[in-house]
Amino acid sequence: MQTRDVDVAIIGGGTAGMVAWRQARKHTDSVVLIEAERFGTTCARVGCMPSKLLIAAAEAAHQAAHARRFGVEAGPVKIHGPAVMARVRRHRDRFVEGVLKSIESIPESDRLLGKARFLDRHRLEVDGVGQLHAERVVIATGSSSFIPAPLEGAGSRLITSDAVFDWDDLPESVAVFGPGVIGLELGQALARLGVRVRMFGVGGGLGGIQDPEIRKLALKHFCDEFPLDPDARVHEISETSGGVQISFDDADGDEATEQFDWLLAATGRRPNLEGLNLESTGLELDNLGTPLFDRYTLQCGNSPIFIAGDVNNERPLLHEAADEGRIAGANAGRWPDLRAGLRRAPISVVFSDPQIAAVGLNIQQVDEHCRGCFAVGSVSFANQGRSRVMGRARGLLRVYGEHGSGLFMGAEMFGPAAEHIAHLLAWAVQNRMTVSKMLDMPYYHPVIEEGLRTALQDLNHKLKAGPERPGDCMDCGPGV
Fold it and tell me: What is the fold of 347-462?
């Protein structure tokens, strides 16, 4: 069997892999991109974009159903499931088409379709293609939905988020396992589209929230919309002729049984490492089988192997995958000239309603970093001016700052416009701004961001860097 020699081989044709290919090509023309199944990104096919399409439909239904509070009579809300799902698929396919056009710009000879596995640090076997000898390799194989064994009792009625967007119609009922980012987004959207939803969790987690005050408020809100037990005791899951049957302890601790059309496993994702034969590379692996790597260069140990994107399980987000693809691809291309790449301030958003956002260090990390010398400022959106005007007056923002330096360290939020406030705060973290400096920035009136100013005023006072914040003036009185 003939072996093809290349400078750089990139395993994985998703976001990180595509970006890595383009970066490596800036330094050498000898680069191949290998994909096991089909080129394209998780985001476009089954992730962030189709889920937002479903959420947009749910928001439209929810706003129509609650228009009366504004003095608007919208009439009975009718949800046409086939039309909802047809729009989701139509726009999803357009997003995927755009990604595939980008893939097609890569020369066909540099795109290899087949599952790759290491024979050693420099040799790869690609099913249906043959062997490659690569001077450097970038692992960018992404991640896949993880399904715990107990859920397999649902049989053919067990699905993951990968399959939801291919539904032709909305089901009558869905049991959602996993109140994390995916579970909350899809579960709430389905509930607002008229699907009977019950959500089960393990261990008490909710949307990745770390601040206990915010988690408590968010849990109460979601439980007002649909049954949600973040630490459920489930006795049995079994497939029936009409769906799936689940026996569990209800809110009173009594055993209950319910039937659902589907069981949606939103129980997280795992790196796609199986079958890569990483043992043959001699790389040091962690207890999950992931190579140890430098997060600034993405180099695995001292080897010519790099790892980027969801597969390294550090920050499984699209913008992080793109950043890591840039770093890994450039370093693989210019090897052995390694350079540290820019790692941006942590930011995450859950597109629930209200939204959940986290920026910078969480409260436990702040405590550890500051050795207890920090303060917390907060604001409730229950009486924030613009939030009340919009009928979205609910939520809580908590901001963290370091005593002495006055540096803004991070924040968590459950409330309106969290996706936008999170970006402002992430920019502040990345620029190492003090809380006082953040308060010098302009705040227009009337906007939800005035609530952020209130929280920062509270934090600045607790850091002994400013006066006590004004009273409850709803952002429009002399206390501003």
Answer: Enolase-like; domain 1 (3.30.390)
User: Does pTM top 0.85 for this prediction?
Assistant: yes
Return the CATH class of domain 3-144+270-334: alpha beta
For 105, 172, 186, 232, the CA distances from 53, given in Å and listed in that order, are 27, 19, 11, 29
What is the 3-state composition of the chain as percent helix, strand, coil, each rounded to the nearest 5?
35, 25, 40
Query: How many angstroms separate the Cα of 358 from the Cα of each of 208, 363, 435, 463?
Result: 9, 10, 17, 21
**Spans of all domains in the chain:** 3-144+270-334, 149-267, 347-462
User: Distance between CA atoms of 277 and 280, rounded to whole angstroms?
Assistant: 6
Distance set, CA 145 to CA 47, 161, 182, 464 (Å): 11, 8, 11, 47
3-144+270-334 and 149-267: identical CATH topology: yes
pLDDT values of the chain reduced to their tens digit, one per residue, 480 residues: 578 999 999 999 999 999 999 999 999 999 999 998 877 666 656 667 889 999 999 999 999 999 999 999 888 999 999 999 999 999 888 887 877 788 888 899 999 999 999 999 999 999 999 999 999 999 999 999 999 999 999 999 999 998 999 999 999 999 999 999 999 999 999 999 999 999 999 999 999 999 999 999 999 999 999 999 999 999 999 999 989 999 999 989 999 999 999 999 999 999 999 999 999 999 999 998 999 999 999 999 999 999 999 999 888 888 999 999 999 999 999 999 999 999 999 999 999 999 999 999 999 999 999 999 999 999 999 999 999 999 999 999 999 999 999 999 999 999 999 999 999 999 999 999 999 999 999 999 999 999 999 999 999 999 999 898 776 555 665 556
Buried b (16+ CB within 10 A) or exposed e, 227-237: bbbbebebeeb
Beta partners for residue 247, in sequence order? 236, 257
Q: In whole angstroms, give the CA distance from residue 421 to residue 32.
A: 40
Q: How far is CA 202 from the centre of its chain?
A: 19
- Is the domain covering 149-267 a CATH 3.30.70.2970 domain? no
